[in-house]
């Protein structure tokens, strides 16, 4: 029996307490499995993390924050952490299972939600965040991908890896770590000044409400600097079907000044949020929610795209930052990006080795290393937040052997050569 089969059999029953089932998903540092409790038969989700990898990649702090935050919280709309178990090499987070997927998938399937359905989910989100803030936890990465749905279609806030706890506040009572996903992060978070975590979460709520009602992001630009200019000028447009009351609420949430932005506590009493929230109207809104009319072609083309990032603009990242989906699909043929926790020298060594195997010659120009093969592969490595770095590989024209749009370049072979140097690719 090979080692893989032994590992699989070993993990069929975990520590005599849970029977592991199918793989639900995987991330850069963890795998999530469906499991069944042997004591009561309850279905749970178990996140499996490699302990040495957490240490080597500097992700221990993010993991400990996630556990500390979730242990403080017990709310109907916050994903519940049942227990934490560990062996010498693995850590297991036993969590509530949310089989309904995430809210982004729900919106993407329908194009957008009706206002009653959007209000139902939004009310559950605001209720959960109000509870978290009252217990000193600011989420700091509120986005549809982190809002899961249970079997009954109720929302569950998840992924507290970037959460802030009271002991992270400085003497001024504010947070100072730039983190989150740029399309949903409040503008004050990236200014490198102190900010209120609860007010930052309120901004993210405004972006989410806009997405629920329109199916698009309010601020969506391939350049972060331009995107933040639009944010400060409040340059966004509502489609005609959004009600005036919902528009006014979003306007108050997407206020670039956190001092005048409506907070979560005031949001709980807002008339739009309290309107038609009886159980009957909630169930009725789900049952009768018909697909919306098709989005205009220009809107559909930018559906759920997120900003492309360059080396100069990587100002809002932390070691636990989620980079997936932040890059423009239109550039994927000529540019590839990945994150890594290896040293720059090791990354470049592996790129040079991989390029050599693919028939590329290596040359150095003005301190930038390039792979030469009819076309030029220029490589740029930028530190995001130690030990995480972002690597950009760009296919450029060179000489008479012009591979133009990059379709003929063997990206897949290069990816295979880089192997374990890469944490995650972000080119799709």
From TrEMBL:
Limits of the Protein kinase domain: 18-273
Pfam family, one: Pkinase
Primary enzyme class: transferase
Enzyme Commission number(s) of this protein: 2.7.11.1
Cited SMART domains: S_TKc
Keywords: ATP-binding, Kinase, Manganese, Nucleotide-binding, Serine/threonine-protein kinase, Transferase
Gene3D superfamilies to which the protein is assigned, alphabetical: Kinase associated domain 1, KA1 (3.30.310.80), Transferase(Phosphotransferase) domain 1 (1.10.510.10)
Coiled-coil annotated residue ranges, if any: none
Segments forming domain NAF: 304-328
InterPro entries: Kinase-like_dom_sf, NAF/FISL_domain, NAF_dom, Prot_kinase_dom, Protein_kinase_ATP_BS, Ser/Thr_kinase_AS
GO MF term set: ATP binding; protein serine/threonine kinase activity
SUPFAM superfamilies referenced in this protein's UniProt entry, alphabetically: Protein kinase-like (PK-like)
A GO BP annotation: signal transduction
Binding, ATP: 47
Substrates-to-products reaction catalysed: L-threonyl-[protein] + ATP = O-phospho-L-threonyl-[protein] + ADP + H(+); L-seryl-[protein] + ATP = O-phospho-L-seryl-[protein] + ADP + H(+)
Record-stated family: Belongs to the protein kinase superfamily. CAMK Ser/Thr protein kinase family. SNF1 subfamily.
Database matches in PANTHER family: CALCIUM/CALMODULIN-DEPENDENT PROTEIN KINASE KINASE-RELATED (PTHR43895), PROTEIN KINASE DOMAIN-CONTAINING PROTEIN (PTHR43895:SF33)
Record's protein name: non-specific serine/threonine protein kinase
